[in-house]
Specification:
- This protein has 6 helices and 11 strands.
- The chain has 2 domains: 111 residues, 2-Layer Sandwich (Nucleotidyltransferase, domain 5); 129 residues.
- Helix 5 runs parallel beside helix 6.
- It is elongated.
- Strand 1 and strand 2 form a beta hairpin.
- By secondary structure, the chain is α/β, with parallel strands linked by helices.
């Protein structure tokens, strides 16, 4: 089984991977097409497209042009790339499934994926952490805010109003500055607090401080976040927008 992504412009291969507003995501098995759908991507940053590949567990990218920086990121994530393709999406898929499209020697094998915490594992860990501390946790709002992996909610014990927390799970973060900046703007207006969860990453922690985002290390055994029974608002060290009085004492 393999998952294939093709940057899309109408029904043709888009000229540039990092500028594509949508992708065809296809699933194939034994050179047979199993399913196919369109996935949309908002925002102008090429990093959004890289993140989208990770979210959809893509194995292979078939594209026309792609910048060297983004190609390197995808290779580091273990994805294979066949570039310089043009024409209709259906035609390119047929060529690939027939074996007519070949990888260049510079493409790493899929078995070289980075080891460590996967995004799914990190989301599961984060959900358990917040639920264990009394939050109601739901999936993020979807494609328009795909950097928000989870939304945690609880009633404030001080004022009785709802606290909404946007959670971004960093997993393997290659450009924490871009990811955290985009998360900041995505979650800026509709949430009382924002949390970025990642294995130890000093750069990510620094950027979170700059943007007022709570940073939680998923690999810190015995962290304060995992035992917050003494906090008025579990996990969060504050301040929380609209609930500043909680932290005044």
């Amino acid at each position: 089984m393999i998952k294939i992504a093709i940057p899309k412009l109408k029904n043709r291969v888009a000229p540039c991977f990092e500028a594509a507003s949508s992708f065809t995501v296809a699933v194939a098995d034994n050179n047979r097409l199993i399913s196919q759908k369109t996935v949309h991507c908002s925002g102008s940053e090429g990093y959004h497209r890289v993140r989208l590949m990770k979210l959809h567990d893509i194995d292979m990218v078939l594209c026309n042009g792609i910048g060297g920086f983004y190609s390197d990121l995808l290779h580091t994530m273990g994805l294979r790339i066949i570039g310089n393709l043009n024409g209709g999406i259906s035609r390119v898929l047929r060529l690939y499934l027939s074996g007519a499209l070949k990888l260049s020697e510079s493409n790493p094998d899929i078995s070289t994926r980075m080891s460590g915490t996967s995004l799914d594992e990190l989301i599961s860990w984060s959900r358990e952490l917040f639920e264990r501390n009394g939050y109601c946790v739901n999936p993020g709002p979807g494609r328009d805010s795909f950097l928000i992996d989870l939304v945690a909610e609880m009633i404030c014990p001080v004022c009785g109003e709802k606290i909404r927390v946007a959670i971004c799970c960093g997993a393997h973060t290659y450009r924490p500055d871009q990811e955290i900046r985009e998360f900041h703007y995505t979650a800026k207006s509709e949430y009382n607090a924002r949390v970025f969860i990642s294995p130890t990453n000093p750069a990510a922690e620094r950027f979170c401080r700059e943007y007022g985002i709570e940073f939680i290390r998923s690999d810190k055994v015995g962290s304060d976040a995992s035992d917050s029974s003494r906090q008025t608002i579990p996990i969060l060290s504050g301040p929380i927008e609209g609930h500043e009085k909680v932290f005044e004492s």
